[in-house]
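Re: beginner question about structure tokens

> Can someone show what the tokenized structure looks like for a real chain? I only ever see the sequence side.

Sure, here's an example I had lying around. Input first:
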Amino acid sequence: MTQGRLWCSLTSVSTAVPIAEGLFTWPSDQPSLIGASCRVCGTTTFPAQGSCPRCTAEDMEEQRLHRTGTLWSFTVQGFRPKDPYRGPTEFRPYGVGYVELAGQTIVESLLTTDDPGVLEIGMPMELVIVPFPTEAGGGDRDDVVTFAFRPTGGAAP
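And the corresponding structure tokens:
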């Protein structure tokens, strides 16, 4: 189990591409997740969507989400997920959690550690962008990035 493990080495930040467009601001020194907020009832979603899951209004506004939050729940993925999983060929366990972004929403995310001894429900977390290897063209790519949350030493908002 590891603290702060990255899944691969990133060859160049300037050429790195997001795992999917529209999930987070990139490139950025202070990246944020991109959500949407309903102008009718105030519900915030992540990822952004065109209609509100609460009131069904189609009046959604793009919103940058908080970079910090609180660990709401977590687990460690200990076996290779079924297709369409596109992680590295050689599977390694990884942390997955729900992070509550105060006043906005709860986000499901990779965590930078797979050590349950390091994680504690209610602990402060911070958004980071990390390399994510994918299987492409017969081999693992090293220029794809995704978002994750890491534990911080400060107090959560």
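Each token stands for a local structural state, so reading them left to right follows the chain. The chain is about 0% helix and 40% strand.
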